[in-house]
Amino acid sequence: MKQSTSWRAGTFLLRAALGLILLVTPCLPAADSAPVDLSSFTRQPYVQMATPESIVVVWRTLGPIKPIVRYGRSHQRLDMVMPAVNLTLRVMVPKPETEVSPELAVLREPLFQALPRLHSAEEGTVQYEARLTGLDPNTRYYYALFDGDRRLTPEDPSYTFATHPVLGQSRKARFWVVGDSGTAQQASFDVHDAMIRRVQLDRRPLDFYLHMGDMAYNDGKDREFQAGFFNAYEPTLRHTVCWPTMGNHEGHTSRGREGIGPYYDAYVVPTRGEAGGLPSGTEAYYSFDYGRIHFICLDSHDLDRQPTGAMARWLKADLDRTRQDWIVAFWHHPPYTKGSHDSDTESQLREMREYIMPILESGGVDLVLTGHSHIYERSMLVDGAYATPTVAENTVLDDGDGDPLGDGPYRKSKGIHPHEGAVQLVAGHGGANLSRRGTMPIMKRVILEHGSVIVDMDDDSLTGIMVNKDGFERDRFSIVKQGRVEITRLSNPRQLPAYVRPERGNRNRGDRSESLPEDAVPVIEKNADWAYLAGSHPASTNWTLLDFVPTPAWKAGRAPFGYDDSRQHTTDLKGMRNQYTVVYLRRFFEIPNLDGVSALGLVIDYDDAFIAYLNGVEVVRRGVRSGRGAEVSSVPSHSADGHRYFPFGNFKELLRPGRNVLAIEGHNRSLDSSDFTLDPYLIMQD
Amino acid sequence: MNVRPPTLPSSLLVATLVWVLLAAPLSAWAHDSPEHVVEALTEQMKQTGVTAELLYRRATELRVLRRYDEAAADLQRALQLNPDHLDARAALGRVYLSQGKGAAALVTLDDALGQAGVGDQASSLLMIRAEIRWALGATNEALADCERAMEEGRIPLDWYLMRSHFQLGLGRTREAVQGLRDGFDRTGSFVLETEWIEAMIDDRQWVQALEAIEPQLQASKWKSAWLVRRARARLGQGHESAAKADLQQALAEMDSRLSSEHPDLMMLADRGLAHMLMGDREMAMQDLERARQLGGDTWLLGRLEKALGQDGLAAGQGKDAHVGK
Fold first, then answer.
1. Are A421 and A397 in contact (CB under 8 A)?
2. Which residues pair with A473 in a beta bridge?
3. Distance between CA atoms of A249 and A121, rounded to whole angstroms?
4. Is ipTM over 0.85?
5. Which residue in B316, B179, B31 sits closest to A566, CA to CA?
6. Bridge partner residues of A81 (DSSP)
């Protein structure tokens, strides 16, 4: 989306297309005279690209309306009107062969055909981008949208925005950092809700937020944006600007080089330095200022990351130009991670580390925010870690935890100085499935929980807190910039212990391969009904036997069992957390003819451990080192990252013709674990 | 400015030029790392059979992992299964270029262009072929491809830069100035504005360049890059003392900012040029060699290479003036 041309083209054509309508519109009504109609929106209003003097309000309807934006300093007195010249329209013209209503058919008129196009929205969609200008800096305004004299937004003070402070003005800032949240699933909603509760608790609202990308799984399509981003964040987006960076999933349908696709349709960001910083000429990368903080957004996905590329050259010039006290850079692919991605092996991540980080660190960057890797990782104060593989020796400047109440904040000199260190923060834990493959040596915190980060900044300090999706604070760090600090490199910094990945699959000696037999047939179906006991232990071990009679405490439930794990559990064990750690399942199954069974095995997805019994005899255990049931004291962590097959080696000795029973006890690693999953079924091979 | 074509493999700039052809949506498993996607695609091919599309997608991930030999094998097989798979053919050309097989890359792109229609797709293919031709030393042909590609449609910023490289390489400095100015006017890109100023210096438009440099210098906190540019222009005017002062100030700033372990390559190139303009050839060569070791290529180092006579020109031809020692 070439913003400058779109402004010119859009405003001219809009005036041509709608001028007659606006001229004949009588005096505008009072704000509360017309009924509200939110249903007119196919995308509810959201604010974009705030500056000290302006902001853009964006929304979508199906078919054109007579767009009017009223705004003012009081939500009860919206005494200013945005002039038509400040409006840009983008349209999705209905195809000739599509039958549409007359209201949508008007979009086939030549004037609308000539307007800038949306990439792939629903046919008949009209997107409005209203730029409110001439505003006062550091000021709160309220707004409402109308279709002629018909009010579209309710009389609600949450339809508001605040302009940025004047460049260089001292002002505290609070912003939210979230990434990889575009799943439209419960975990991402919970992450958002936890942020809202936190800012309410602090009585300190957000000033804006940064999204690290992957906000619209799986392919960044228009409808995925609607579900995973706009619907999910609507209550926040109507009053808080999101400054985005494109993730690889948006990159399936959007292209940074040309600036086209649903991602570029959705957002309005600077191309000519409108919000501070140098003109980039593209929305793929840009910078903006907030008070004394300079923010830089890069496209790590599909642009040239090399120093010869336009993006690197622009970055260097932008860093050379800024005179702010703080520099925060953000993009999608982390230069340092061992979460669901590995920065030592993947080229996009490696190139950001080898080519972009030297530029940023010679420019004095303070904080680097990224996503992509589905984990929370936060580094020590580091500089110069460009090698592959990444090492901590002589790249760590402060190996403390950065917590003001712990080892103390990281310290840098006041102002911007090259190579005084930066904190690297991976915030890819906003809702997608989490995983970890190792420990990045420069990291101080590695947390495999869903959540997000809230950053508070003032003139000489920056504090970041990670809030998980339940609202608990799980990490805190600060950077303080005062006076002049002497930099030393630690030759042997304290590092996190090496990560031991939980055992997967069939690793015991003598066990067969975990590949499912090609001609396997279910004996107990996936998503079958089971008898289950939760919240107490069986009185004896008889519960695994064929002739066991369950007590009334046993209930019936359908697999999968569990809570959280960012997935739907048919039997949701919401009361499990902080109450109990073991769940017991039983299910009968029939084997008419033993001779027809050449293999029998359990297929199970689990978090964190289990023991399975066939007709009262243990056949498989994973994660439980010793003991059974209530005897088990602790188990290691294991993520429910897919079903695994465990063949029963001795099934021929244990199976009976006719009725048999499979019993499973599932164990959670701790009472306060954030998740639990037990999802079994049984297969056999003829 | 004549710039020697790069030694193969050339800049990875080409890696971005036909991204449009690789933007085909991947299915749900593309959510994972490239390694996982490769595994998943391999498993899928075992289960459902090998198709051109699956091979192409696997090759895409293999390229990300720089496993070029495997990527080439997949793409070749994909084209055996479906000779009309244009995306695969274009990707194969890029892989050949990454492998240093310029001739094969060129043939492949010729074939792809024969298949392509008009519009953005053809333009992107022309730009890939332009870089291949440049890598093979056919700069005139490269420029012709570039200009055809830029005739219509959306023009990415990198294309303006690439065109100017070709023009400067052919000594067509005035055209480079005009082309970059056009790009800057259209996009507002600061990078294009900066390159326009550099091109004015290359075209010996000293006065105009100095007029453009001055406000940039005043506005910048870190001034070394602009000081070097101003020094070049001042040397062109014969103002050696003033140029020397600029270069000394620039060197002091760059020395304080450059990381010794892995420096910012652009700043390293600037420092090398500043050394050369100060007459210190030895230090300039050190910076040039260090930049090359770290992956800097002719796209980045062209002006420094030219100043040092490392660009394939006969000694004394086309070199900048420098401060007398």
1. yes
2. A467
3. 17
4. no
5. B31
6. A70
Q: Which two tokens stand for residue A473?
A: 């604070």
Number of H-type helices and E-type strands within chain B: 17, 0
Contact check, Cβ <8 Å, B156/A309:
no
The distance of Cα A531 from the centroid of its chain, to the nearest Å, equals 36
Res B200: pLDDT? 97
| Cβ contact B264–A359 (<8 Å) | yes
Query: Quick check: B157 contacting A, CB < 8 Å?
Result: yes
Q: What are A81's two structure tokens?
A: 């009107």
CA distances to A140, A304, A309, A311 from B16, rounded to whole Å, are 42, 6, 10, 12
Reading phi first (left if > 0) and then psi (alpha if -120 to 50, else beta), residue B316 is in: left
Best B19, B228, B287 member to test A by mutation, with max A CBs in 10 Å, is B19
Residues 351-380 of A with CB under 8 A from B: 354-355, 358-359, 361-363
Task: Report the gap between the CA of A313 and the closest CA in chain B (Å).
Answer: 6
CA B153, CA B175: separation in Å to the nearest integer? 21
End-to-end Cα distance, chain B: 25
Pairing of strands A561-563, A571-572: parallel
Mind listing the pLDDT tens digit for each residue in B229-238?
Answer: 999 999 999 9
Task: Please give the radius of gyration of chain A, using alpha carbons only, rounded to the nearest integer.
Answer: 29
| Closest chain A residue to the Cα of B220, Cα to Cα | A321
What pLDDT is stored for residue A20 in this prediction? 36
Q: How many CB atoms lie within 10 A of CB A132?
A: 23
Give the DSSP letter of residue B24: P
User: What Å distances lie between residue B156 and A1, A280, A354, B11, B25, CA to CA?
Assistant: 12, 12, 24, 17, 22
Find the CB nearest B25 among A252, A318, A355: A252
Q: Which amino acid is at A584?
A: Y
Element (H, E) at A358: helix A357-362
**Phi/psi of residue A192, each to 5°?**
-65, -45
- The beta strands (E) that lie in A120-165 are given as 125-132, 140-147, 150-151, 160-162
DSSP string, A375-408: SEEEEEEE----SSS---TTTEEE-S---TTTT-
Query: For position A567, what pLDDT does the model report?
Result: 61
